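quick one: inosinic acid bound model?
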Amino acid sequence: MKLVFATHNLNKFKEVQSLLPDTIELVSLTDIGCYDDIPETETTIEGNALLKVKHIKENYGLDCFADDTGLEVKALNNAPGVYSARYAGPNASAENNINMLLENMTGIQDRSARFKTVIVFIQSEKIEFFTGICEGTITRDKKGTLGFGYDPIFQAIGFKKTFAEMTLAQKSEIGHRGKAVRLLIDYLSKT
Ligand code: IMP
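yep, here:
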């Protein structure tokens, strides 16, 4: 079965691909020649993931799934949340976003946070949502060079390493995206 994952993010693509059974051939937006700028204008993670799959379905006629992820920090009223990619500004790098978050958390003792991934799958006219959450804390300093985004400052509950110090397999086993992908796989195996 061929399945389009509506992303250009190679890190996300590799993570999801490593979890899928061999019977599913994963195809990216790059593979289907889609370089459209799909706006993320919704105010929820679910809404932005939905925008991506609807765009692909309407313009390319393909069944596909998309993910959208946000980092929710309790002491910051769940910011950056849906604005995680643009926390430090419209063209912010991961480093800019991390620095902004660490700065905004100066002096904050409760460093509880969670990653939330929502996968939206569109097949014919049917739309399904799968949510994966990973609870953890924001470290005081960046640690590790693996992964991407906010990984160097996120430590899952019960672990001493940040996501950026874990292998892809370790991160996927306990992480938000891995949880959401496993729900999608479970759904696909039953349909
Ligand atoms: P999006 O899902 O690609 O829109 O990601 C939103 C923001 O969260 C971006 O800044 C990503 O770098 C970051 N992000 C998404 N997934 C992860 C992850 O697994 N670890 C760390 N940061 C992530």
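Strands lie at 2-5, 25-28, 64-73, 79-81, 112-123, 126-138, 154-156.
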